[in-house]
Write a structure and sequence with these properties.
The chain is an alpha/beta fold. It is built from 10 helices and 13 strands. The radius of gyration is 22 Å and the shape is elongated. Bound molecules: adenosine-5'-diphosphate (ADP).
Length: about 290
């Protein structure tokens, strides 16, 4: 029997309303992630990536759809259950490093803070912080002010802080957005190592294909929907949403010259989608008769 997905999002809709404008940030997004996977969500600015991360972290609620994370029904959960979920089930790495770190605290104090706030005894919280600082190779810097460190070092401290309560899920919004590529590669390798050591599930958001390639799986988001998935075997999987719609990647559409109409024919073991033309339409109709 296959394991249930760790993250199961189906038909998520999120609409932002201002006085006279409605923005459909998510328009029926579907995604499943297995426990222990590192998935990169990639897509242009405004595609809905951050909106989805905010739903996953239970900071925001969808207008429609279902979302289960580690067996928790995030949509139906009460405010109290959602606060508990945020505290114990998810670590968040924000895009701006400074949002992850409290000024005036040393690296060790920053990393220990989530556990201290969760009511863990100081001795245990600091022991756990030391272990995490070791895991991100920053133990020697634990008494320094992280805001005076390099971008890459700050990000290591931020990662340790996000894991302060040992959550099973880590969400990261552009985790390498503020560092050079050499530092980015080290951070991505670190995330992969932490994923294995702490059996983490990681969802990261990026617009950089190089960053996405470091993940086990890449999921493209366009116009508030998952539009394609690319696994390590480089086979593109198109997501079919609950209404039966699928979004075919633009480069494929161009390659086969698919315009606004297509013919769909059931063939042995699959469905053949071809550009519409009178001739194709006739032969498809004959096949079916
Ligand atoms: P991405 O992270 O892929 O760049 P976002 O999820 O930030 O995309 O945004 C998706 C769409 O929703 C954009 O059009 C954005 O302007 C809009 N949006 C996001 N958050 C809000 C908000 N709080 N209020 C109004 N519109 C928003």
């Amino acid at each position: 029997m296959s394991q249930p997905a760790y993250i199961a999002a189906a038909n998520l809709v999120r609409i932002f309303r201002s006085e006279d404008v409605e923005t459909f940030a998510l328009q029926g997004l579907d995604l499943t992630v297995q426990q222990g996977e590192m998935v990169a969500l990639i897509g242009p600015s405004g595609a809905g990536k951050s909106t989805f991360l905010n739903l996953l972290s239970a900071l925001d609620r969808p207008d429609a759809g279902t979302l289960y994370v580690g067996g928790v029904d995030i949509v139906a959960a009460s405010d109290r259950q959602r606060a508990e979920y945020r505290r114990s089930q998810v670590g968040f790495l924000w895009q701006q490093t400074t949002r992850n770190l409290i000024p005036g605290l040393t690296a060790r104090e920053n990393v220990a803070l989530p556990a201290l706030l969760a009511g863990i005894r100081p001795n245990d919280a600091y022991a756990s912080a030391d272990e995490l600082l070791m895991a991100v190779e920053m133990a020697d810097h634990r008494h320094r002010d992280p805001l005076r460190m390099s971008g890459g070092q700050q990000q290591r401290i931020a990662i340790a802080t996000a894991l302060g309560c040992k959550p099973p899920l880590l969400l990261a919004d552009e985790p390498t957005g503020e560092v050079d590529w050499a530092s980015a590669e080290r951070i991505l390798a670190l995330l992969q190592r932490l994923r294995r050591e702490y059996a983490l599930t990681i969802v990261l958001v990026t617009h950089d294909t190089r960053v996405a390639e470091a993940a086990d799986r890449t999921v493209a988001i366009r116009d508030g929907r998952t539009s394609s998935e690319r696994g390590t075997d480089d086979v593109e999987t198109v997501v079919v949403d609950a209404a039966g719609r699928l979004q075919i990647p633009g480069d494929l559409l161009q390659r086969v010259g698919l315009g606004s109409r297509a013919t769909v024919t059931a063939v042995d073991g699959g469905i053949l989608v071809r550009p519409w033309s009178p001739a194709v339409h006739r032969s498809a109709a004959e096949d079916q008769s």
